Amino acid sequence: MGNIFDLLFVNPMTNLLLLIYDVLFHNYVLAIIVLTIIIRLITLPLTLKQQVSSMKMAAMQPQIKAIQEKYKNEPQKLSEEMRKVGFNPLGGCLPLVIQFPILIGLYNAITRTLAVTPFSLLELGKYIYGFLPNLSSLVPVNNVFLGVLDLGQPDKLFVIPILVIATTYFSTKLTTPPSTDAQTKQTNQMMSMMMPVMFGFFMLSAPAGLGIYWIVSNLIGIGQYYLMKPRLDLAKAQHAAVAGTTGSTPTTPQAPPKPKMPPPRSKVKHSTSARVAKPGSEKK
After folding, report:
1. How far is residue 206's CA from residue 203's CA, in Å, rounded to a whole number?
2. Is 55 helix (H, G, I), strand (E, B) or coil?
3. Is residue 252 part of a domain?
4. Structural domain of residue 8, as residue ranges?
């Protein structure tokens, strides 16, 4: 399985990264930035689809919660009603699943080309395509950035981990759709705090080059969000309107309630316009 993943994702990205590195005057940071932008542009339709689906699910939460409460004891009926309103829990996950191997492949390509150990440097030669002979002369790559930062070693000044934490926090905060459910809202808040800290802690021992990639990826993600925000807001408003329409049940007019007691009879006697004469009472 690992060989197939390398063949489809890691090896092409490794060679593409080295090609970009060669074109950009052997500047490894610029090569990471350009390759990350290319990957983000390729996966942009999937990113948009995933975020629109997340907005749709967030807008439908009140309607979904009402259906779940109404049919909690009828699983088959609950499933039917969920399908009617268009609920698809995998709608937002599928684009993310498709992007995941691409991002992992890019991550491994950066790790491989940095070649932080002599063994990894020897291993790198096996993954370079033979029909690209100029790439072999690029190894090892120039790991030094701004004359002080070794991209193959952890950042001793902690600048990279701090930037990773900050950009991850803002990226997660922006891309997480708001929720009306209290439990979901609390979970999202916890994840928005835990994930940045987790990645920052990881960068304390990881090569700084990986931190550069993560920072650039977060910044591009934030930029993509603001570029797509008008479309996301429109999709959210449309789904909210649809959810409100389909969630409301028509009400039938009801007859006014009957009075508990009959109205009192009037004591005023109505006068008759003519009296009926009894037989034989007329004067002759």
Report:
1. 5
2. helix
3. no
4. 2-247
Q: How far from 117 is each of 51, 122, 136, 275, CA to CA, in Å?
A: 39, 9, 17, 126
From CA 151, how far away is CA 281, in angstroms rounded?
Answer: 130
Which one, of 235, 250, 248, lies nearest residue 59 by Cα?
235
Written as six digits, the tokens of 221 are 């993600």
278 part of a folded domain = no
| pTM, rounded to two decimals | 0.70
Best CA proximity match to 141, nearest among 207, 61, 236: 207
Look up residue 8 and give its DSSP letter. Answer: I
Give the tokens for residue 158.
């902690």
**Higher-confidence position of 140 and 49:** 140
Query: How many domains would you assign to the chain?
Result: 1
pLDDT tens-digit profile of 81-112? 777 766 666 555 655 677 778 878 888 888 88
210 and 110 Cβ atoms separated by less than 8 Å = yes
93 found inside a domain: yes
CA separation (Å) from 55 to 189, 196, 234? 17, 22, 10
Residue 194 lies inside a defined structural domain of this protein:
yes
Express each pLDDT in 178-217 by its tens digit: 666 677 778 878 888 898 999 899 999 888 998 999 999 8
Question: How far is C-alpha 25 from the chain's CA centre?
Answer: 37
At residue 165, the pLDDT reads 95
- DSSP category for residue 178: P
Question: Residue 33: which of 162, 215, 163, 189 has the closest Cα?
Answer: 215
Q: Quote the CA–CA distance of 253 and 256 in Å, as a whole number.
A: 9
Contact status, residue 15 vs residue 135, Cβ threshold 8 Å = yes
d(CA 182, CA 59): 14
Residues of the chain with pLDDT > 70, as a percent, come to 75
